[in-house]
Amino acid sequence: MDDVPVVLIQPRHGWLKFDLAALYRYRELLYFLTWRDVIVRYKQAAVGVAWAVLQPLLTMVVFTVIFGRFAKMPSDNLPYPIFAFTALLPWNYFAQAIARSGTSLVSNANLVSKVYFPRLVIPISGAIAPLVDFAISFVILLGMMAWYRIAPTWGVLMLPVFTLLAVVTAVAVSLYLAALNVKYRDVGHTIPFLVQFWMYASPVVYSVSIIPEKWRLLYSLNPMVGVIEGFRWALLGKEQPDFAVMAMSAVIVTILLVGGLVYFKRTERIFADII
Questions:
Q1: Which of 130, 194, 212, 262 falls between 20 and 30 A from 43, CA-CA?
Q2: pTM to 2 decimals?
Q3: Nearest to 148 by CA among 51, 64, 59, 226
Q4: Radius of gyration, alpha carbons of the chain
């Protein structure tokens, strides 16, 4: 009996007591929740993983016709289809991640109210699962690059950094949304509007070059600006991006993440009571 482990569950005190080490101890739960989300997404789907390809491809076609051909949006001397698809790659990941993670606590209400585990596992797993779609779409992008004879430059080595920045941004935003959605269920209905509004506030269908220089720094407060511009630079070899914009995006993401962790940890003690 002396060898039986004892786990003491008690609230943590202090604003910056995040207990991130618990995430590592519950890494298997994180893996299974992520894998469950992937399976549920494609279970009994008529076209299976093709949805991961059709969504960005069809969106790219619409953007190419409306914004590329009719509106004549500048595309930094790149073919507009690949210009748009490269931006849709991180954007679709981000949109899916916050859509899943933002409602993840309510969707897992039975689990939250009955079993102890670090609640951070749930929104993080929701943000990781869309990386499967991201990887599938990335293969399509490589095919498009070959079709347009665009060879990646040395900047492609920075691609994991920009991908990580997109993941951290999604997690940071989701921590606020998931916690708020527990208390105010209409937050879940607001997320689609937030995603749509945020997309047009990001350089998905247009280039950052159309933003006046005096507004560029303010515009870069949107962390997805640095992510999308980073992807275009790393993969398409467009002109060197404004690294001040990317640095600003990284700073904003860091502030959002720390603030999100603080808010989430301060409110998680009441999740089981009101969910």
A1: 194
A2: 0.89
A3: 64
A4: 20
